[in-house]
């Protein structure tokens, strides 16, 4: 309630619907002895259909025309349709009102009073929105409470001028009983249930006893002042309803609300833990790739001098810039991920291209890849292929295919397997990369990726598809 505006258009609709349905039901129950003939029948149907006409008119204006105007900003359309609704409802209500003799004036003051009340409510809401919602920072608790208060006040004003159609006890319900129930529930939540949950049972009991004493004292005083013992009976009934029904029922919903908040906090903690795990996994990736690249440069420097080493350093610089500036982002362009992959494979080719028994095939989409992807999702599978698929003494191969389609990226890696240790520095690299990327895929793309891994004694195959 502090961080956002409540859906007041829906709230207003449900309040008005409850109000008019209550009026209609009360008229039905009170008029069940009518035989639907003569003036009594006209009055009966007038008390049913006039509230229905008002409710339908409110629905079309408040729930249809005004939202359409706020979306399209077509004032002329709003005026035309509003006038049409007023014209039709005016003649229908006027016919029933004159027939039931609710008014001898066809202009029906109560009809136009109702329009004035609704127009006044909209005007006040507009002014409040202009004043309060124009601020950069706003505590919406005050705004929401003010809107609820205005809804209540205008409902009371409407009922006071709708007396000929609404039964008196409907006014009593909305003006006295419902606010009293809300007040008792809030009293219970803050001063009885709330204090008890905080471990302040003594204060909770004191406020409970204070409330019972005030209500009992009020009805005892009325019975004495009016000399009517029936006030005592009414007081006992009200106290029983509060103690046996209202408070236990409200406590039940308060506990449900607390359980909901507990579940929400648990989910928040899990999300925070997932974010922390993701950050930790990313922190594992950077040194892993850095050491692999440095090992590659070390092997190149032993085999040859300046030209190849300079080229390797350039590739490494591009990779390190990628890791420093883009690896910590949530999403990066797929093209940048592809460039990093190309640099890595080129760097590996520098150190093994002189070995005739090693075959490296890299097929990739020549056109630029579009879309966004989480960084460092593709390279671990390629790195794993170079780690386990290359032997400098035995026949080896790595076949890589990278395809970028609209809305997805697909990587296929097929490599030979050489599990024995030799002089290749890749064999000594840490193996956290592959497990790392599996966890990241589960966190970031739980239902939007496909990963298939197959292997036998001589080769290893990986297929990865990610929906962007």
Automatic annotation (TrEMBL):
Keyword Nucleotidyltransferase: no
InterPro entries: Bact_2-comp_sensor_kinase, HATPase_C_sf, Sig_transdc_His_kin_internal
Gene Ontology molecular-function annotations: kinase activity
Cited SUPFAM superfamilies: ATPase domain of HSP90 chaperone/DNA topoisomerase II/histidine kinase
Record bears the keyword Transport: no
Chain ranges passing through the membrane: 12-29, 41-63, 75-98, 110-133, 145-163, 169-193, 205-225, 231-254
Protein name as it appears in the record: Histidine kinase
Organism in which the protein naturally occurs: Belliella filtrata
Lineage start: Bacteria, Pseudomonadati, Bacteroidota, Cytophagia, Cytophagales
């Amino acid at each position: 309630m502090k961080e956002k505006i409540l859906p007041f258009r829906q709230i207003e609709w449900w309040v008005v619907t409850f109000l008019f349905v209550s009026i209609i039901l009360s008229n039905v129950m009170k008029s069940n002895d009518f035989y639907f003939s003569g003036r009594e029948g006209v009055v009966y149907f007038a008390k049913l259909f006039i509230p229905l006409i008002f409710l339908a008119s409110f629905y079309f204006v408040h729930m249809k025309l005004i939202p359409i105007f706020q979306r399209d900003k077509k004032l002329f359309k709003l005026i035309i349709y509003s006038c049409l609704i007023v014209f039709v409802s005016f003649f229908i209500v006027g016919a029933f009102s004159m027939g039931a003799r609710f008014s001898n004036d066809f202009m029906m003051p109560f009809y136009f009073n109702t329009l004035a009340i609704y127009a006044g409510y909209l005007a006040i809401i507009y002014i409040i929105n202009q004043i309060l919602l124009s601020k950069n920072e706003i505590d919406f608790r005050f705004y929401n409470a003010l809107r609820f208060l205005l809804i209540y006040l205008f409902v009371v004003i409407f009922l006071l001028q709708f007396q000929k159609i609404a039964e008196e006890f409907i006014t009593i319900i909305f003006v006295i009983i419902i606010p009293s129930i809300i007040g008792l529930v809030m009293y219970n939540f803050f001063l009885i249930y709330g204090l008890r949950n905080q471990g302040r049972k003594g204060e909770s009991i004191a406020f409970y006893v204070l409330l019972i004493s005030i209500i009992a004292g009020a009805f005892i005083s009325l019975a004495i002042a009016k000399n009517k013992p029936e006030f005592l009976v009414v007081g006992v009934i009200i106290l029983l309803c509060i103690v046996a029904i209202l408070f236990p029922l409200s406590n039940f919903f308060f506990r449900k609300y607390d359980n909901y908040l507990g579940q929400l906090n648990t989910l928040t903690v899990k999300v925070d833990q997932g974010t922390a795990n993701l950050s930790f996994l990313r922190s594992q990736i950077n040194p892993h790739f850095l050491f692999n690249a440095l090992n590659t440069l070390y092997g190149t420097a032993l085999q040859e001098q300046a030209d190849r080493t300079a080229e390797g350093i350039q590739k490494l610089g591009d990779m390190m810039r990628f890791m420093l500036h883009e690896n910590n982002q949530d999403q990066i362009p797929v093209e940048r991920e592809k460039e990093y992959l190309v640099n890595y494979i080129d760097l590996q080719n520098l150190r093994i291209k002189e070995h005739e028994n090693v075959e490296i095939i890299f097929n990739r989409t020549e056109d630029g890849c579009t879309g966004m992807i989480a960084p460092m999702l593709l390279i671990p599978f390629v790195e794993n292929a170079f780690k386990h698929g290359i032997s400098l003494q035995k026949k080896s191969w790595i076949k890589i295919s990278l395809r970028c389609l609209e809305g997805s990226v697909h990587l296929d890696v097929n490599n030979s397997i050489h599990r024995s240790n030799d002089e290749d520095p890749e064999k000594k690299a840490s193996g956290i990369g592959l497990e790392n990327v599996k966890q990241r895929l589960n966190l970031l793309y739980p239902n939007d990726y496909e990963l298939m891994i197959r292997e036998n004694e001589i080769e290893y195959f990986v297929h990865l598809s990610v929906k962007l």
